[in-house]
């Protein structure tokens, strides 16, 4: 069975830069500061579904 993948989208420009494996135990959406290559700086990335 293949894992579901979820994208992390930049909260500033909206581009989806990163993908992660979906976790059944996580109930809230993931929010992490990651580097956005389009903005050129570290911004908050939120999990999209």
From TrEMBL:
InterPro entries, per database record: Ribosomal_bL33 (IPR001705), Ribosomal_bL33_sf (IPR038584), Ribosomal_zn-bd (IPR011332)
Organism in which the protein naturally occurs: Levilactobacillus zymae
GO cellular component: ribosome
Protein name (record): Large ribosomal subunit protein bL33
Keyword Cell cycle: no
Family membership noted in the UniProt record: Belongs to the bacterial ribosomal protein bL33 family.
Organism phylogeny: Bacteria, Bacillati, Bacillota, Bacilli, Lactobacillales
Pfam families attached to this UniProt entry: Ribosomal_L33 (PF00471)
HAMAP family: Ribosomal_bL33 (MF_00294)
Gene (UniProt): rpmG_2
Keyword Ribonucleoprotein: yes
């Amino acid at each position: 069975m293949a894992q579901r993948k979820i994208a992390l989208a930049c909260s500033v420009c909206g581009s989806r830069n990163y993908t992660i494996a979906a976790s059944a135990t996580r109930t809230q959406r993931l929010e992490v500061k990651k580097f956005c290559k389009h903005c050129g700086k570290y911004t908050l990335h939120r999990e999209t579904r």
